[in-house]
Amino acid sequence: MTAFIQARGLRKSFGTTDALRGIDLDIHRGEVIAVMGPSGSGKSSLLHCLAGVLVPDSGTVIVDGVTVSALNEARRSALRLTEFGFVFQFGQLLPDLTAVDNVTIPLLLGGMKRKQALKEAHGWLDRLGLEAAAARLPGELSGGEAQRVAIARALVAHPSVLFADEPTGSLDSLAAENVLTAMLELVRQAGTTLVMITHDPRTAAYADREIIVRDGQLAATDRVGIS
C-alpha cells in the first residue's frame, strides 16, 4: 500500500548546520505519529519540510500523490490552506480577534461567506467545549482554552493532515491531557493524519508510532501504546 506521506532522502542545511541528513519516512493515512528527539535534532525541520513550509535542499516529499517539494511557494501556500492544519506550542491566535473569529480565518481565506464560516466555527468550538468562550479574546482565555481554540482553527477546514509542534508543551499536566485527548478524539473521528512533535513520553504514548530524530537522521521508529 502506498504511503499517504512519503519522504525520500530529505536533506536540509542552514549555513554550515545540517538539520536533516537523508531522512526516509512513510506515514499512512489516518496514522498518528509522535516525532521525538533532543533539542536541535531536526524535528521541526522535518515537520516543516513535510508540510511544505520549508523546501528540502535535496530529496522529495509526496503527500497524497502530490510532490509538495516540487511546488512553488504559491502552490505550497494554497495546499497548506486547503489540506494541512497547524497547531503550535503557544497557539498563535490573533490577539485582537475573538475565539470564534480566530477559528473562521481558514474558511474566510478559502472563500467561504462570513455567515457560513461563523456557523462552522461555532460548531467546532461547541465540539471542543468552548461555545461559552466564543466571544472572548485570546487574552481572556486560559492556556488550555486558547490551545483548544487553536485546534478548532486547525481542523475547521477538514484538513487531510494536522501538523502539531509541541501542542501541549506550554500547558500544565491536566490542561495538556485535556487538550491532547480532545485533539486525538477529533482527528481519529475524521481519519485525519497527525504528525506531532513532542518531548513528553506521556504524549507520545497516545500515538500509533513513535519516530526518534537525532542529528538530522531517524534513530528509531517504533510502535507505541495507544491510550
TrEMBL record:
Q: Which residue windows are transmembrane per the record?
A: none
List the protein's name.
ABC transporter ATP-binding protein
Positions of the ABC transporter domain: 5-226
Answer whether the UniProt record assigns the keyword Transcription regulation to this protein: no
Report the PROSITE patterns cross-referenced here.
ABC_TRANSPORTER_1 (PS00211), ABC_TRANSPORTER_2 (PS50893)
Q: Which UniProt keywords apply?
A: ATP-binding, Nucleotide-binding, Transport
MF (Gene Ontology): ATP binding; ATP hydrolysis activity; transmembrane transporter activity
Keyword check for Iron-sulfur: no
Top-level taxon of origin? Bacteria
| Gene Ontology annotations for the cellular component aspect, listed alphabetically | membrane protein complex; plasma membrane
